[in-house]
Write a structure and sequence with these properties.
Elements (H helix, E strand, L loop, with lengths): L4 H21 L14 H13 L10 H15 L23 H16 L14 H14 L9 H18 L1
Helix pairs in contact: 1-3, 4-6
Length: 172
């Protein structure tokens, strides 16, 4: 059965997806648009990859290059979990009425902590910093000796993170 144009385009897309993912870990590999066309942008990314990983700098994807791209991609995927620095800055304060993914993270951490301690409020993980979340934060602040203002500043954030890490370590 002959190699179809659709199959070729799909293989190029797969190559581009791998290169794009690798570029998120290695800034020496330029980010490319996944479009299924082996154009100049893809060739430049392949050349950068080949230079970075000690291969012949051709811009073409031969079997050696393909195997190395797949190997590097898989190594990044299987590496230790990356830390996610969600809290914007040491001067940032999250408070009642705020919304977003950071609020969800805080609500999830408060729920993890509440699972391991009696009589702690378990706020819903809804992404809205509501009165229930503020009360759970105050309760947590009291537990760890922080001023009970119901707001998450850098100090409260650090205590939440370390409390969750402690819980995760002791559950292993």
């Amino acid at each position: 059965m002959p190699y179809t144009n659709a199959q070729r385009k799909q293989h190029i897309r797969e190559l581009q997806q791998y290169l794009y993912a690798i570029s998120l870990f290695n800034e020496k590999i330029p980010q490319i648009i996944v479009d299924g066309r082996y154009g100049n942008e893809t060739s430049i990314a392949v050349r950068a990859f080949q230079r970075e990983y000690g291969l012949s700098d051709t811009g073409s994807t031969d079997p050696v290059t393909w195997n190395k791209i797949v190997s590097v991609y898989r190594a990044y995927l299987n590496s230790a979990p990356a830390a996610y620095n969600a809290f914007p800055s040491s001067s940032y304060i999250l408070r009642n009425g705020d919304i977003g993914s950071l609020v969800c993270i805080i609500q999830a951490m408060l729920n993890d902590i509440a699972e391991n301690y009696d009589n702690m409020i378990r706020p819903s993980t809804c992404g809205t910093y509501n009165s229930e979340t503020a009360e759970a934060v105050k309760q947590f602040q009291r537990k760890v000796g922080l001023p009970m203002n119901g707001e998450v500043d850098n100090r409260t954030w650090n205590m939440l993170v370390h409390s969750c890490e402690h819980i995760n370590r002791t559950l292993k």
